[in-house]
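Forwarding these from the shared drive since the link keeps breaking.
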Amino acid sequence: MTVVLHVAKASGISGSENHLLLLLPALRARGWDARFLLLHEDEPGAWELARRLDEGGVPVEGIRLRRSADPLALTRLAGAVRRHRPDIVHTHLVHADVLGLAAARLARVPVRASTKHGFNAFRETRGFGLVDRAATAGVDLHIAISRGLARYLARVEGFREEAFEVVHYGIEPGDDPPPPAAADRLAVVGRLIPIKGHRTLFSALERVPEARVEVAGDGPLEAELKALAAPLRARVSFLGRVAPAAPVMERAGIVVVPSLGEGFGMVALEAMERGRAVIASAVGGLPEIVDDGHTGLLVPPEDPDALTEAIGSLVHDPARVRAMGAAGRRRALEAFSQEQNTERTIALYEASLGAAARRRRMSRRAPAARTSANAASTASRKSQGTR
């Protein structure tokens, strides 16, 4: 059985962790020995991830980092990789790319894979791209969760866009959703941080007085956003962190994703699976999820005027909102199923293992070829010496 060791640092459960919670048990169900190496700093969210993977039948081993940057952890990590004897090491996020891929090289793992998951402000800092490219140099399989993310990494870090294979996140179907609520009921789900675009949404809502919105999420901008939303009075409700978020989406007619950057845009996909129309920024992976004009509307990021127009056009057209929600659910289940995600991942693994096997055969032939050539050369010289 092929051993695939996934490595990631986790402090909680969000997009990449939810992806692993679906993918790793699915790989095991298809006969792959998928395991997980958890880098952590004793965060409760990390242990929650470990517990849920364990419940899904995935073997988990934890390695504690004494601080976020812990170069001494490489020795412990390399030892753990050697114990597992994996055929593939597959890393996720920065810490695992830096430490996990180095450990895989030290352990001479046949195939090394890395998945990039998101837009991050730190990726645009000076010198980070050089570090990131160095950490992933020689990787056999580069994966991005959207083509938009691959373009972003090429632009800000200097990667080659075409070097990335794109593997979209998958989603499991839930029960049939209830009919959409009134078209003037909106929802926005996500951390209260700048990149999620709440400021743009609140600016747009000032000019759509009939629209009401529930805000699900917490984060460092909470106080600022509540102050910004104060003039909107009772039309904005802050719910705090809500998990799962499906009930919030089901109370809405439209889910708004006004992000400034999204590696994928899982909230949009989750909303579509719940049969809700989506208004989203045309950034990152969101245009690959939302079929503009069919399952929702796409608008430029940080453009309150365009967002105002999009919201206004739908809150006055409930029939269109219902049609978009129905089309969105069909698209979510047909184009973004977890089965498709798993099968695509397996196909890439098999191709990478095949390429690694061919390299090994060629490397074994090379010494034999050199020996044969040397013998022929020696024989030729001896023959010339007897003439």
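-- next protein --
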Amino acid sequence: MDKEKILIEIASYCDKELLNTVNSAIIQAEYPDRIHFAICYQGDDLEDYYELKKIDNCKIIHLKQSEARGSVYARYLCQSLIGDEKYIYQVDSHMRFVKHWDTKIINQLLSLNDKKAILSGYPPAITPEMLTAPLDDKIFDNPGYGTVMYAKDFRTDVDDSYFISCASKLITKDNPLAYKKNAFIASGNFFTFSLAHKEVRYDTSMYFYGDEMPMSIRLYTYGWNFYNPGESFVYHLYKKEKSKFPGLKHDTMINENKRLKTLLGITKDDVIPPEFGLGKVRSIEDYEKTFGIDFKNKKISDLAKSGDFENVKGN
């Protein structure tokens, strides 16, 4: 039985569900002592912050609400707290974990026989019953459905956007797409070896959209492979109470898009430090050819729009 440490990375902004998320992970773990936390706590209400400080193996970076610089920077700070943990599990701050999730997700990852495997996908939704149930309720005894991510289209938030909007579909563990490779990561449900976040750090010039599409490309060029989970060991609260966060500013999105265009080699409008650049194991052209995406001409193949990469070369 693999009892190596798991570091749960959580970027949180004024989220009242954060403490429940952390306690759910501990209560539902088969081996709670191996669960460690790296949390970026962004907010001025410190009641939950002081409760989290009481938890063993919980490392926290606190930013005042006015100091918050978006989810990407917060995830970057979480990465800075990685210690000797073998695994990392990046989740959002409004989740519920299933019984013995730690053993189950490690077994799922190791079953892939890939030293650079990443399990990632948008998890199923927390139901109203789950939200009000005790964290160890029987409703959490069994895993949820797995998911397959797929491309919808290029975003239209700003002119000439190169960010792809993704969605997901539920699958069973017996589905042909279960445990097959995919083109995208979900930043709120991302389990792998800690080496992934030691090799590829979040780009602090990004703000919000940069935590998925650019990271998918960069991780791929470093040789990492993304797999559809056949089962989900967390549930996600998609409709949560809105915080006072003002949201993305138009200029911020323009700057993110400029950064991505430079990363893709489409323009040279930005200067990207090597630590936030591409790997040398594979190229962007490899990514485009494998998954049927043409960034320069903004074309997404039917393959990428279905997420049906079962027979993609290398799978």
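The CA atoms of residues 126 and 235 lie 5 Å apart. The longest strand covers residues 144-154.

- D.
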